[in-house]
């Protein structure tokens, strides 16, 4: 049986190297690789990451048009750069185009990509175009920059650090569930859920504030889900976590869509992917927290505390102070949905 997605990544890391590879080069194991410009940690470095949108895996054409798909590709790709606390710089985009994809589709994709890059901002500097037997997929290489000493990584969390998120959770995962399960036309999918999937935003401003604050200790973007991605921080940092479920910021649109299934909404918020907000840990420093909150507010952002890093290497849920089991489901790109 072939390995799962993360098991294979671990195999690749063992063979090709991971983490600090000397001279400031950081390889496999974070949201992006870090390539230094100079020997000093005060020197700028590049953060480089790759992501994809593949038809029938990440999207179906009935869910999203080519304009929004291109913009989504850009923001999904640069969400990894945001998690590193880096500023967007350049992008390379590769597309694979089936014969049924028309001129208008490509024009819409081009326009959406241009809008997404302007929003960051970043520049397109190259890429590749290939035919495929059918369907459509696109891949982006996202490149950002930041002083090496300010880059946020996954391995810096310490027991006692707070756990925070920069946005409400679960709406995009709810949209995917709705796209695949709502058959009754009299039950339309709320526009806010659809927009959460179609129009994610890379939290670039938030990442830069955190990198410059000296407060954050670790970060990752929530692409797989809060619990799986917190697990990545825990594995890299050698820590565990307690999550305060009473203060979980569940999307308002998700709550409205599932008013009679509070538990189901919570599961989507904890395990559903495609959020692309930042999950970060930060030291217990009220002054730095207040300053970060002020700067977030000035930038139109917000963060919520959802738990605490622990020395015990497992995750525990707390509800009204009592331990409760946490859901375990996640998506694996080599095995599909896992229980």
Description:
It is a single chain. With 339 residues, the protein is α+β, with helices and mostly antiparallel strands. The chain folds into 2 domains: 31-150, PurM-like, N-terminal domain (60s Ribosomal Protein L30, Chain: A, 2-Layer Sandwich); 162-338, Alpha-Beta Complex (Phosphoribosyl-aminoimidazole Synthetase, Chain A, domain 2). The chain contains 10 helices and 14 strands. It has a 7-stranded mixed β-sheet, with helices on both faces. Strand 11 (315-319) and strand 12 (322-324) form a beta hairpin. The longest helix has 18 residues, at 66-83. It is globular. The relative contact order is 0.16. The mean pLDDT is 94.
The assigned CATH architecture of the largest domain is: Alpha-Beta Complex
Count the domains.
2
Overall pLDDT level: 94
CATH topology of the largest domain: Phosphoribosyl-aminoimidazole Synthetase, Chain A, domain 2
Number of alpha- plus pi-helical segments: 10
Q: Class of the largest domain in CATH?
A: Alpha Beta
Please provide the count of β strands.
Answer: 14
Question: What's the end-to-end separation, in Å?
Answer: 18 Å
Structural class: alpha+beta
Strands across the major sheet, in which order? Answer: 7-9-6-10-8-11-12
Give a quick account of the main beta sheet: strands, pairing sense, barrel closure: 7 strands, mixed
Poorly predicted parts:
none
Overall shape: it is globular
Tell me the fraction of residues in β-strands, as a range: 25-35%
Spell out the CATH superfamily of the largest domain: PurM-like C-terminal domain
